[in-house]
Design brief:
single chain, 94 residues, alpha+beta, SH3 type barrels, five-stranded antiparallel β-sheet, 5 strands, globular
Length: 94
């Protein structure tokens, strides 16, 4: 019996914005939300390939992130639906 083995690429795709520590810059890979819920994010520049960095938390604990230089407050539930990859992993691959 073989157990499924996660490749490095699979592990990167499993990383969610809600799991990223403060001040760790990441790149958005995909948005795991229905179109009607993803559309407001897309309108605000949250697009695959953009750089996102959690900079602080709101009093309620929701993340406030810097997205390509603009600050945006997200709900924790929304942050958990944003698939990201670490930028340091990109630099190592070059």
């Amino acid at each position: 019996m073989q157990l499924p083995v996660m490749t490095e690429q699979d592990q990167r795709e499993d990383l969610r914005l809600g799991d990223v520590p403060m001040l760790q810059e990441v790149e958005l890979v995909s948005i795991d939300l229905p179109v009607e819920l993803a559309e407001p994010l897309l309108e605000r520049g949250v697009l695959p390939g953009c750089r996102i960095c959690p900079v602080r938390s709101s009093p309620g604990g929701d993340p406030i992130v810097s997205i390509d230089g603009s600050l945006l407050a997200l709900r924790r539930e929304t942050a958990a639906c944003l698939c990201v990859k670490l930028l340091s992993s990109l630099q190592d691959a070059d």
